[in-house]
Amino acid sequence: MRLGVHINRFNHPGGGPAPGFELAVANVAAEAAGTHRLTVMDHYSPSVSSPPTPPPSASAHS
Question: What is the mean pLDDT of residues 23-47?
Fold first, then answer.
């Protein structure tokens, strides 16, 4: 059996370049744990609602 890790949220509180660093750290941890692959959402769609605005969420369509 091959296990993988999927990251479906991109709501880093600091914004900026840190999410890329955090994805790299997650990848190293997943590889060290022996997972087969690490996947992420392929695009970002912010949630649309009235205040208060919920945290951003990623959306995948296939």
Answer: 84
